[in-house]
Design brief:
CATH architecture of one domain in chain A: Beta Barrel
Structural class of chain A: alpha+beta
CATH class of one domain in chain A: Mainly Beta
Largest sheet of chain A: 8 strands, antiparallel, barrel
CATH topology of one domain in chain A: Cyclophilin
Largest interface: A-B, 71 and 71 residues
Strand content of chain A: 25-35%
Oligomer: homodimer
Number of helices of chain A: 7
Strand order of the largest sheet of chain A: 2-3-12-10-11-5-4-13
Mean pLDDT of chain A: 89
Number of strands of chain A: 15
CATH superfamily of one domain in chain A: Cyclophilin-like
């Protein structure tokens, strides 16, 4: 009953590499490239990289490791208009030095690392929160826009080159898009107006590896942002649209993902000694000597080529291109500016 | 331009929980359950659990951690007919004590942990491999069967209850299936016979978190099985059909996923001191005192309910069921037999 086929992809790999024609990319037909994704990223022109403002970074310094090495985690905050209620709270919390002296309290394998005030549940011991934090409604988990129009944070329509064939294959959304370096799911729906129904699109940030979210209690609580987590395993996308996402780790996630797993329920540490201390959390513009960072512009042709190569590896190690990729298997490249 | 919708899922969560009717599950209409996935697993009857034979386990004991705690990793080997050339090699390597005294040599964040002989590339220092290892052809990365017939390892057709709507949403395959506790992608294709073309299905194991694969050199090399890796990040499914998968970690993956990341290229450790030693690797039937393990039978009704709940969380924490799940976000539950 068991037979063997010729590799399906021999035909594909035999296709000669065509010159990269931007007209074809713009039409959603990214050219087959024999380059590995990292090679495409390395060859991307400077104009295809976008700067991340230091004021949009959150810089968390953990206590040094057992050998005395510093452990810094750099997080890019979610651009407007997404999740801005929580992002605003987070800016206030950083300005108030709320996280200084708190700790990483939970490390659950293949799931999340979570940090904040370990005594938050104990009113006698809990750190005082800044008084002006917003209580953000659940409706802010999603954002709506006119059907088919994806917008960047400055309001201009997004014009990306990512092939529709890749974007349409998502088990959790009708399609996905990257907007300013962040992953989003999209779904069209009808909105009731006074007279007519109009089609709109709903979008929401996606729980990929390294995304940063807001811990919360049971609904309708949505969390303030004082308790944060990051994803350290396979994308837990059942959390999408159920919890706020406020950014993603762009450097230093290994300082969190390699921590010992907690042995309590949900991966919480059972003793205070197991926790990793947080020395300070600051907005990047307050940190002296911070490198400048940029991401491969998700609206650029280079990004489309990179995504196509992630979906269809044609470099020498591979014998069969996958023919697709899920959004979380297309991590957005970030680099320090030299 | 920004408006807010009512949560789409309010309608769904308002649906009363119906009694679980097996006829409906069998028809691919798993009943909405307000239970969390873990609660469904805990309530599954004994008959919905399947034993894993000790002879199908690979037990790897790492050197104790810095506090002297033992670190054991238990791997379930891939059932027939999948990847059996490499599995057979692995049984020979374990019988020859090949891995005793070798090490974990590579830990790449959000990707893989890899182990084996750190000196394999150095002919003067490399450990000698057993002489009778098979050179397995690339054609063994996939398995074919008559169209629409998924078979278990004893040859009987698989009859699972997983809803088609969940299985059909996969960016890397036409649909997915679980077979005896392991995740597989499926795709139909035509096979040329002498006279006619017949439809067949191609299947292959999928690179989910914790799956174990065979390191290899450039194609057409397929690896012997002496060099193994496990996935410790988001599913790198571009590796599917390009590398052999031989099993999955069912216990102790945290001993690998929490190791310090290697700072060399591809996450290899740069000095021998950074490596974690492997004390021994044995087939489970050789290990005295090993607990018995079982997995939630992927052909059972309980598994279908569990998968449906993973795709549509209706327990109290959630306000919007996702409406789908990718195969790697439905990890197959495993337990020790009490």
């Amino acid at each position: 009953m068991r037979k063997h086929l010729l590799p399906l992809a021999l035909l594909l790999t035999a296709t000669p590499a065509l010159p990269q024609a931007s007209a074809n990319i713009a039409a959603g037909r990214a050219q087959p490239s024999p380059l590995a994704p990292a090679e495409i990223v390395n060859a991307a022109p400077k104009t295809d990289w976008a700067a991340i403002a230091a004021s949009d970074l959150l810089v968390m310094d953990l206590a040094p490791d057992s050998k005395g090495k510093p452990r810094r985690v750099v997080i890019q905050l979610m651009p407007a208009p997404f999740s801005q209620g929580w992002v605003s709270n987070i800016r206030k919390l950083a300005a108030a030095r709320f996280w200084d002296g708190t700790s990483i309290n939970r490390v659950q394998d293949n799931y999340v690392v979570q940090w904040g005030d370990a005594n938050a549940e104990d009113k006698a011991k809990a750190k005082r929160l800044p008084g002006d934090l917003a209580a953000v409604p659940e409706s802010e988990y999603i954002t709506t826009s006119p059907f088919g129009v994806v917008r960047k944070s400055d309001g201009t329509p997004l014009r990306g080159y990512l092939p529709e064939s890749i974007k349409a294959a998502d088990p959790y959304a009708e399609r996905f898009e990257f907007v300013e370096g962040m992953p989003f799911g999209y779904m069209k729906t009808q909105e009731l107006g006074i007279v007519t129904k109009t089609w709109v699109e709903v979008s929401w940030p996606v729980h990929c590896y390294g995304m940063v979210g807001v811990g919360r209690d049971m609904p309708p609580n949505t969390g303030t942002g004082a308790e944060l987590y990051t994803v350290i395993g396979h994308a837990p996308r059942h959390l999408d649209r159920n919890i706020a996402l406020v950014g993603r780790v762009i450097e230093g996630i290994e300082h969190m993902s390699s921590l010992p797993r907690g042995t309590g329920a949900l991966g919480f540490y059972e003793t205070p000694e197991e926790r990793t201390g947080i020395v300070s959390v600051r907005i990047g513009s307050e940190v002296s000597g911070l490198p400048a960072y940029e991401y491969l512009a998700t609206e650029s042709e280079s990004f489309a080529r990179y995504a196509d190569a992630r979906a269809n590896r044609r470099d020498a190690f591979f014998i069969r291109p996958a023919g697709g990729a899920d959004i979380c298997n297309i991590p957005v490249p970030v680099r320090r500016v030299k």
